[in-house]
Design a protein that fits this description.
Number of helices: 14
Number of strands: 23
Helix content: 25-40%
Structural class: alpha+beta
Distance between the termini: 18 Å
Largest sheet: 4 strands, mixed
Radius of gyration: 22 Å
Bound molecules: uridine-diphosphate-2(N-acetylglucosaminyl) butyric acid
Shape: globular
């Protein structure tokens, strides 16, 4: 079993380049199905979720070429099925974006019920509510594939019961070619929603209001193939910001949109970390102690839930008692047990975790229980005394491009252990 092995104690210094946003790419790649011609997608992160989506499109008949590790050329014209292959589709939650895209292309879609990171119940009722409003019916088949279809996709007013990224994007995809006007109210406002809307508009769609809570989509008949570059990954950037702060380092984080990082910068500053903003970079440095801080996750522009485990590591070594309130997912504190094994003092009660700062963490064997939890374990390993081994790294590889290479360049002592070796005996 592959593991990351980290010897803690090194201070991160230097520069790191942030990759394209995973959560934008996982929607943009299925959205290519709407084009009448080939698309070239640039700044695609080299992560396993992108590989899975490329494989799905390829199995559906599209011509898919990685021009280089971050540039994908896709010709969707040869696709002749509305069915997402179940084995591949089941490997990632984002494959549900094929439903919206296939509805636009064929007025019908069949895809596996979504999987993904385990944060408790992850329903798709709001996606289905939106599809129904657009004139679709759906049923779940025996093989756990969901089938959605319509005779006549028609624009509608849709008020989402909660702010959801997935439903906002999926309804946007399904409505792009629907007749008339669709209005999504209480829409999510994450940067990747704006990016997907920009991609669709570049192809010829008529979407306005993305980035606000009301998105208007006027149906068009054709979308053309385009070249498009994915925005920088807000969460990858935030992860390196926290890693720099945790190690007491000084890191210039390049190829970012500082505006997207404001909620993260604000919390770091509250904790005594220095954050300098440039046009497309942020510099994060810390010399003094970390101060306690309360954090509540919220939909954008609030503090992102996808940064919750990483900031949790910082709170675990801050002076005093901090409160972390997870407001988006029902159960996103599974990493806490792993962090406690490294010496953190944390009590979880429902959606609230209380962190009593400790002086130091101790290295040991831990698991990446999901993608961001895995990133948090790496940060914990960077500051812990001794050696940390992180198992189940496939979760991390879903969303972080070359994390070992990037951290090594910053001075971290981390490597990928492919097979158990003698060094493992020293872990602990
Ligand atoms: N929800 C419903 N019904 C729905 C949809 C969502 O009740 O039909 C609830 C969820 O259970 C959750 C909340 O609404 O409590 C928000 O869910 P949302 O739909 O926004 O999440 P998602 O689209 O499934 C995306 C990201 C997640 C990120 C969330 C929130 C992708 C592929 N995933 O998930 O990213 O946590 O938005 O920002 O874009 C990650 O990257 O580590 C990750 C998990």
């Amino acid at each position: 079993m592959e593991k990351f092995i980290i010897r803690g104690g090194n201070v991160l210094k230097g520069e790191v380049n942030i990759s394209g946003a995973k959560n934008a790419a996982v929607a943009i790649i299925p959205a290519v199905l709407l084009a009448d011609g080939p698309c070239r997608i640039e700044n695609v992160p080299d992560v396993s979720d992108v590989g899975i989506l490329a494989a799905i499109l390829s199995e559906m008949g599209a011509k898919v070429d990685f021009v280089d590790k971050n540039t994908l050329e896709i010709d969707p014209r040869p696709v002749d099925t509305h069915v997402v292959p179940s084995e591949l589709g089941r490997k990632m939650r984002g494959s549900y974006y094929f439903i919206g895209a296939l509805l636009s292309r064929y007025s019908r879609a069949e895809a596996p019920l979504p999987g993904g990171c385990d944060f408790g119940v992850r329903p798709i009722d709001q996606h289905l509510k939106g599809f129904e409003a657009l004139g679709c019916t759906y049923n779940v088949k025996e093989n756990a594939q969901i089938e959605v279809s319509s005779d006549n996709l028609k624009g509608a007013n849709i008020y989402l019961d909660m702010v959801t990224v997935g439903a906002t994007i999926n309804i946007m995809l399904a409505a792009v070619k629907a007749k008339g006007l669709t209005i999504i109210e209480n829409a999510a406002r994450e940067p990747h929603i704006v990016d997907v809307a920009n991609f669709l508009n570049t192809m010829g769609a008529n979407i306005s209001g993305a980035g606000t809570d009301t998105i208007k989509i006027r149906g068009v008949q054709h979308l053309k193939g385009v070249t498009y570059s994915v925005i920088p990954d807000q969460i990858e950037a935030g992860t390196y910001m926290v890693a720099a702060a945790a190690t007491g380092g000084d890191v210039l984080i390049k190829n970012v949109t500082p505006k997207h990082l404001e909620s993260i910068s604000a919390k770091l500053e509250e904790m005594g970390v220095r954050v300098d903003e440039y046009d497309d970079a942020v510099r994060v440095s810390r010399t003094g102690p970390l101060k306690k801080c309360n954090v509540k996750t919220m939909p954008h522009p609030g503090f992102p839930t996808d940064m919750q485990p990483q900031i949790g590591v910082l709170l675990s070594i801050a002076n005093g008692t901090s409160i972390l309130n997870e407001n988006v997912w029902e159960n996103r504190f599974r990493y806490v047990e792993e962090l406690k094994r490294m010496g953190a003092r944390i009590t979880v009660n429902g959606r609230i975790a209380v962190f009593e700062g400790v002086k130091e963490l101790k290295g040991g064997p831990v698991k990446a229980v999901d993608l961001r939890a895995g990133a948090a374990m790496i940060i914990a390993g960077l500051i812990a005394k001794g050696t940390t081994s992180v198992e189940d790294i496939r979760h991390i590889q879903r969303g972080y491009e070359d994390i070992v290479g990037k951290l090594t360049k910053l001075g971290a002592d981390i490597y990928l252990q492919k097979k158990p070796d003698s060094k493992e005996a020293n872990v602990g």
